[in-house]
Amino acid sequence: MELKVLKKTDTEIIIEIIGEDDTLGNLIAKEAMKHPKVVYASYRIPHPLQNRLEIIINVEPGANISEVLLEITENIRKFLREFKKEVEEKL
């Protein structure tokens, strides 16, 4: 996976991720929309033959977009740790 910030302003960030697809894009966008400071979040695959996706996240004015993004990724990590624990217990 290769990550590149295509655009970053006070209220918007667009991140390109090479080597990933809809699975990761959907996970990040859905988790971002749960965050109280996120106004809009989505992802797109610019071209179906290219192995890359773009994540778009807009936050409320005054929110620190870097902190919001770190909170989103930490929430995903927490969910996956809990999921892994449940799977290990059931198997």
From TrEMBL:
Assigned EC number:
2.7.7.6
Q: Is Transcription among the key words of this record?
A: yes
Please give the chief subcellular localization of this protein.
cytoplasm
One GO MF term: protein dimerization activity
Which GO CC terms are listed, alphabetically? cytoplasm; DNA-directed RNA polymerase complex
Q: Which reaction does it catalyse?
A: RNA(n) + a ribonucleoside 5'-triphosphate = RNA(n+1) + diphosphate
Please state where this protein is localized.
Answer: Cytoplasm
* Its job: DNA-dependent RNA polymerase (RNAP) catalyzes the transcription of DNA into RNA using the four ribonucleoside triphosphates as substrates.
Concerning NCBIfam families, the annotation shows: PRK01146.2-2
UniProt family annotation: Belongs to the archaeal Rpo11/eukaryotic RPB11/RPC19 RNA polymerase subunit family.
Subunit composition and interactions: Part of the RNA polymerase complex.
Q: What name appears for this protein in its UniProt entry?
A: DNA-directed RNA polymerase subunit Rpo11
Annotated source species: Staphylothermus marinus (strain ATCC 43588 / DSM 3639 / JCM 9404 / F1)
**This protein's encoding gene:** rpo11
